[in-house]
Amino acid sequence: MTHDLTGAAWFKSSRCGGGPTCVEVAFLETGVGVRDSKDPGPAFVVSPGSWSSFVRHCSGTPDGQGCDSATS
Question: What's the rounded Cα separation, in Å, for the pair 56 and 1?
Answer without folding.
Answer: 25
